[in-house]
Amino acid sequence: MSIIIMIIVGFIVGLIARAIMPGNQSLGIIMTTILGIVGSVVAGFLGQSLGWYTPGEPAGWIGSVVGAIIVLFVVGLVTKKRA
């Protein structure tokens, strides 16, 4: 059951991050979900590194969205250089 919740939360976080980030991100449903999940992992890692979260504590909604925006920004930089 927790995997299904993680997928749903990842999708919602990915949608919010795509709505906040300027520009056109042509991502499908699966990539949006992966974006949200990776954003949450990035936020959790950065939060633990900065001392905001204890080890094993998941990132919150806002942290996950910020992490997903960071991932979108980095992906935009990488794909812009290749084009």
What is the compact description of this entry?
The protein is mostly helical and 83 residues long. Helix 1 crosses helix 2 and helix 1 packs across helix 3.
Overview of the molecule:
The chain has 83 residues and is mainly α. 76% of the residues lie in helices and 0% in strands. The protein is built from three helices and no strands. It starts with a helix and ends with a helix.
Question: Which SSEs are present, and which pair or pack?
Answer:
Elements: H1 2-20, H2 29-50, H3 61-82
User: Total strand count, please?
Assistant: 0
Order of helices and strands: HHH
Structural class: mainly alpha
Task: Please state the average pLDDT score.
Answer: 85
How large is the share of residues in beta strands? under 5%
Q: Note the main sheet.
A: none
Helix content: over 70%
Low-confidence stretches: none
Overall 3D form: globular
Radius of gyration (Å): 13 Å
Helix count equals: 3
Distinctive features:
single chain; 83 residues; mainly alpha; 76% helix
